[in-house]
Amino acid sequence: MKKNIKWFMPLVAVFFLSACASHVTPFQYYTLKPVVEVKVSNSTKASIGVAPVKIPGWMDRASLAVNNGGYEIIRYDIQRWGEPLQDAVTRTLTQNLSTLFPWSDVQSGPWLRSQAPDVAVNVVINNLSWSDNVLELDARLTLLKKQVRIQSSSIKLNRTLPKGSSPEQLVEGISYLLADLTQRVQKNIIAQQ
């Protein structure tokens, strides 16, 4: 009888594991896209640098997460970022600025002090909230010229999303908010010339 139980238990375990595996939902991966509307500046800077964007710790996760406008964080279970969010935001801002300043050398940092760009853009995202179909980005923007701060400002941008938006529409909304932020950066850079 004990011999039969030795063979029976592993078969039962395999049966249960295969049943569980058939119900696993695969992850969905998302990335941000540069979607800035082309309003090319005739203004040129020899070089523009985008420092690695700082994001809140609760956003620095593999899964998509937004603040509900209050104290709660909404986290999606199977919807995930395809790359670290800090890298995605930095990359997107850099690509957007490259589109807006096609005659400038636009690169993301960090860089050596001796290789500092003419103008550096430092962005800190304070909050990303989604409440009543409004997606809001709260950020702090600092411009540096040869590593000396020349301007610093708080920026709040928002986009209205369709009612009942999907996670993909949420990610698209974030991409458009970053495009709006990039256009604000463009105006600030031009104003400093």
Automatic annotation (TrEMBL):
Residues 1-21 form the signal peptide. Residues 30-185 form the ABC-type transport auxiliary lipoprotein component domain. PROSITE patterns: PROKAR_LIPOPROTEIN. The keyword Signal applies. Pfam families: ABC_trans_aux. Keywords: Signal. This is ABC-type transport auxiliary lipoprotein component domain-containing protein. It comes from Endozoicomonas numazuensis.
